[in-house]
Design a protein that fits this description.
The longest helix has 19 residues. With 357 residues, this protein is an alpha/beta fold. The protein has two domains: 248 residues, 3-Layer(aba) Sandwich (Rossmann fold), CATH 3.40.50; 89 residues, Immunoglobulin-like (Sandwich). The strands form three sheets. Strands 3-4-2-5-1-6-7-8 form an eight-stranded mixed beta sheet, sandwiched between helices. Strands 11, 12, 15, 16, 17 and 18 form a six-stranded antiparallel beta sheet that branches. A four-stranded antiparallel beta sheet has the order 9-10-14-13, with no helix packed on it. It contains 13 helices and 18 strands. It is globular. The structure holds adenosine-5'-triphosphate (ATP) and magnesium ion (MG). Adenosine-5'-triphosphate (ATP) binds next to helix 1, strand 7 and helix 10.
Length: 357
Amino acid sequence: MRVVALANQKGGCGKTTSATNLAAALAQLDKKVLLIDNDPQGHSTLAFGFRERDFTLSTYDLYLTSDILVEDAFLEVSPGFHLVPAGIELSAVEMTLAREPKKELRLRDNLRRSAMPYDYVLIDCPPSVSLLTFNALLASGEVLIPVDPSYYSLQAVRKMRETLAVLREKKGHDLVPHVLMSDFDTRPLFVRKVMDELDELYEKELLDTIIHHTVRFKEAAGSGVPIVNYDPESRGAHDFRCLARELAEQEVSVKVEALDHWSALLHGPQVTQAGVCFEADFPRAKTVRITGSFCDWSAKGLPLSRREDGTWECHMALESGQYEYRFIVDGAWLPDPHNTETVANEFGGANSCVIVA
Ligand SMILES: Nc1ncnc2c1ncn2[C@@H]1O[C@H](COP(=O)(O)OP(=O)(O)OP(=O)(O)O)[C@@H](O)[C@H]1O
Ligand SMILES: [Mg+2]
């Protein structure tokens, strides 16, 4: 079984178009396919004509309802092709899980408990590096990164590769990346330049198939039917059949490895009976200190001690309440990279946030 997240923090680059049409094209190759809509926008759900009234269980329940598994929540698109739908309720996951341990492994744990009689599992992600996206990446062995022809997109794919490098370096999770040229009208000179740049930068990861620009995708999505069914002779249908064949011909072994260290670092601060343990991973730093609302944002802050593995920690007994903080790493003030809970500060940046019950 190959589990592939479709991710790119840039909005509108073709994640949902790729997830839904690739899933349909793989199903036409007689592959057993599960598509998980992991985006509160619910566009993958809409793309198959499902509305919120058509389902009671959704991806939200895979994260938050302990006895609900994939086999309870899927809708059948066609025999052997299933969809776990999503709606706006999925946006509550981030806040509901804010203080839960192993919150970024919820989806993976659910997939491990579910009966998964699939050849392919595709996970459509929202346009952000959020808890939902981390869950998808940590549940997947591969990531397909759609890139539309713009320089913002080149920047976004670079950011995505940085996220993957962090996942790998922090002891862990080595995703196989695929870069997909999506929504490409290959005639303009500018687009050709983008193609050359992608070729140069991502020679190994760049898929041969190009998904060309065609208005048929919008029409197909509007009718709730994937392009391979809506207009099987169209260029878009041809492109997705090529993509499905290209992926099917690859021999990629997919592993989801143990991620305990990484997951610990992703937790951010650990709140226990004894107080809060702040952890940080700055292996090259000479000093790491912490400052925040608990010490009136003292410029000096409080020191973290260095562990042997290059990570840093400090324990603090804190009364109930909400605290904002930042690390001071060799003099530079930074939010906690392992804590997704942040609040905007008056300087236009973000402070990390921890709640002690
Ligand atoms: N190859 C294409 N040709 C024409 N239009 C396309 C193509 N690919 C995507 N689009 C259109 O571009 C828009 C954005 O595509 P899509 O929803 O797949 O992006 P996304 O990355 O999932 O967006 P979001 O980040 O909001 O989830 C849609 O209206 C879609 O129909
Ligand atoms: Mg989308």
